[in-house]
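Students often ask why we bother encoding 3D structure as a string. The short answer is that it lets us treat folding as translation between two languages. Here is a chain of 139 residues written in the first language.
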Amino acid sequence: IMASILRVNTLTDASSNNSTAVATINQGTTKAWIAHSGYSTPTAEDSFNHASLTDVGTGNYKYNFTNNFRAAKSYTNSGGMAHDSDQLGTYAKVINPINTADIKTSSVEVSATYVGGGTEAAGVYDYDNVYHSSLGDLA
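And here it is in the second language, the structure alphabet:
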């Protein structure tokens, strides 16, 4: 069996009324994402473009990418977390880079921060479920 290669520059619908450049589709896709537990030794449950996950401290994680981003600080990071039970209420729980120096082409270090207002004080915590994604251009 011979392998096949499909090479296209533009995708067009069946009526030829709508078309999109393949480069445009690629531009808008998530380039890296991860879902992991935050307790003890964090373990990736599923991921894309992540070589490894490092526990830096309580609520702090370092994600090492398999394929680097084009430039440091040129991609957007977003994420969230949740407990198995929602004892923290419906208040802001976010994953963000700790500081701009922690956004590198090969990795990003993030903090799982609870803003406060529920039963726990504001701060960083090791959550049951942590989710993170990165958007931008790969090298």
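Translate back mentally: The mean pLDDT is 82. Keep this in mind for the problem set.
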